[in-house]
Amino acid sequence: EEAVRLLKRFKGLVLMGGADVDPHLYGQQRQAHVYGVNPEQDHFESALVHAALDLKTPTLAVCRGIQLVNVALGGTLIQHIGSVPGAIQHAPDKFPAGQDYVLHDVDVTPRTKLSKALGATKVRVASFHHQGLDELAPNLKVVARSSDGLIEGLEHTASGQWLIGVQWHPEDTASTDPRQQALYDALIEQARSR
């Protein structure tokens, strides 16, 4: 109820990137590569996810945000995609230090909210993560994947709900890539129309 009261003051929600979500929240033991877990942040943001759904608040979930949405709604994560055979490079070699991101292509399902927001079905994205989505939570659907099959985008399936999650960091290239900026513009347009 507190999260609903808080979120009523806003017309949109962005769940940003950051440290790893606590594996205990999706029924797993913490592995060696997991870093920066902050249970208070996990619980706070999970409450915001549920409040956003209750209020139908337009929501954009970025990197950690997409992972948090999936976990908050009952899904699981791959704790370290570097150990998945055939995975492409989703993070710099010295993650979480070193260069800001790596670039790779993502295929987006046509006629989805994400493809409409981006204005494209193939985008080059800035990637900086070592975890990914595994089992998808109910009421979410996959709308984008990288060439290794990793989930890169999702949407909530409820009618009238604008919740888009992307595994990449559109903010890193939005100043030079109009498609990435268009994702934020779409969120703003949704917030205006509330």
Short description:
This protein is α+β, with helices and mostly antiparallel strands.
Notes on the protein architecture:
The chain is an alpha+beta fold. Helices cover 27% and strands 21% of the residues. It contains 5 helices and 9 strands. The strands form 2 sheets. It has a 7-stranded mixed β-sheet, sandwiched between helices. Helix 2 packs across helix 3 (64-72). The mean pLDDT is 93.
Provide the fold topology.
Blueprint: H1 2-7, E1 13-15, H2 39-55, E2 59-62, H3 64-72, E3 77-78, E4 102-108, H4 113-118, E5 122-127, E6 132-133, E7 140-146, E8 151-156, E9 163-166, H5 178-192
Parallel strand pairs: 1-2, 2-9
Antiparallel strand pairs: 3-6, 4-5, 4-7, 7-8, 8-9
Helix pairs in contact: 2-3
Strand tally, please?
A: 9
Helix content bin: 25-40%
Low-confidence stretches: none
Write down the overall mean pLDDT.
93
Describe the biggest sheet? 7 strands, mixed
User: Could you give the distance between the termini?
Assistant: 21 Å
Q: How many distinct helices?
A: 5
Regarding quaternary structure, what we see is single chain
Radius of gyration: 16 Å
Principal-axes geometry comes out as: globular
By secondary-structure content and strand pairing, the structural class works out as alpha+beta
Order of strands across the main sheet: 1-2-9-8-7-4-5
Strand content: 15-25%
